[in-house]
Amino acid sequence: MNIGRPLRRAAAIALLIGGLVHLQLFFEGYRSIDKIGPSFLLNAVASAAVAGLLAVRSEWFVRAAGMVVAIGTIGAFILSRRGDGLFDFREQGLHPSPQAAIALFVEIAALVLLAVTFLPAVTDEPTMTGRSTTGMSIGIAAVVMIALGVYWANRYDASTSAAETGVHITDFTFSPTILAVTKGSTVTWINGDTFDHSIVATDLTFHSDNIGHDGTFQHTFDEDGEFSYVCGIHPQMHATVTVTG
């Protein structure tokens, strides 16, 4: 069956979409996370480059490279939701939504499509393109990445300051990480990220539902003490409220 070329190009589109999802997440806030940010950017660049090659070249090693990118992305997705996560960063389920679900779907699709091209019954037209065509294909993918990267960089650069008795959530960080208040004070958490977060006290004395972008949560501290808390969705985020009489 001479269906190798449409399968390759469909896989190229899937990989490019996966790379764009990682690029958007990078600018939305993941860029501030040690090791995770660079890995998201690397994924976007690798996905664009391999997608450009797949669109015009049929060699086995190009298709194998596409499978490596897809397998690596799927593997990182699984690791980030198990144990201590990936590079000590952990996500839950299909968060962030809908990006996680989209990325997982397109990477699996790319992997399956490329695996089918290796079946003996599947044939493909011999690669006839020269360096100029290959470079043009990669260049188009790069232009798409750069254009959307500039757009997302400008869109997600806005920041908001927290109130004196408030904690601002931005770039997967509580700010301040240590907040000192007097007994009877009400603390307000403000989510400046585009991702959901939640507030969970380590002693379970208070907790919030998921807080969306620009959402808030308030809790009044009526007892002296030191109250540590984490994000229930991203437990590597942690901070403390110190209450004195």
Structural features:
4-stranded mixed sheet; single chain; 245 residues; alpha/beta; Immunoglobulin-like
Can you put this structure into words, describing what you see?
- This protein is an alpha/beta fold.
- The protein has 2 domains: 4-155, no CATH class; 166-244, Sandwich (Immunoglobulin-like).
- It has helices at 4-28, 36-56, 60-79, 99-116, 131-155, and strands at residues 166-170, 173-175, 178-182, 186-191, 200-201, 216-220, 225-230, 238-244.
- The strands form 2 sheets. It has a 4-stranded mixed beta sheet, with no helix packed on it. A 4-stranded mixed beta sheet has the order 3-8-7-5, with no helix packed on it.
- A hairpin with a 7-residue loop joins strand 7 and strand 8.
- Helix 1 (4-28) packs antiparallel against helix 2, helix 1 runs parallel beside helix 3 (60-79) and helix 3 packs antiparallel against helix 4 (99-116).
- The radius of gyration is 22 Å and the shape is elongated.
- The relative contact order is 0.14.
